[in-house]
Amino acid sequence: MQTDIDPRSLIGRKAFDRNGAKIGTIDEVYLDDATGEPEWAAVRTGLFSRDAFVPLEPSKMVGESLHIPYDRKLIKDAPDFGVGRHLSPEQELQLYHHYRLDISSPDSDPVSPGNSGTSDTDFGKIAGSED
Questions:
Q1: Among the listed residues 74, 65, 55, 81, the one whose alpha carbon sits nearest the alpha carbon of residue 1
Q2: CA dihedral 77, 78, 83, 85 (to 10 degrees)
Q3: Rounded distance, CA 88 to CA 13, Å?
Q4: pLDDT of res. 94
């Protein structure tokens, strides 16, 4: 997944759904381990709420905020993995399915019942982390 969004500029920015409703504030950005590209953002959905993972592609920066092309309910219903930890390939696959994103890439086999699509790829490094 390729995006032109600079992960360092996202932390603390507001995030909005497809209808312009505020979802929350971006807490963390997760990079793809294989490419180093920003792939997911964790958005704090409220004072006592959890973080919801959102895809950075096809999201867009509009002014000073991130606009995510999904409904607020779908975003808030995203799988909860907690923040500050590495996303496993299985967790990322759950997110791809939740948002109905295409997980195949030009240099990988499509996911099939016998192929998880994550054979030797590890995903979800937190931007700025050493691990």
A1: 55
A2: 150
A3: 25
A4: 96
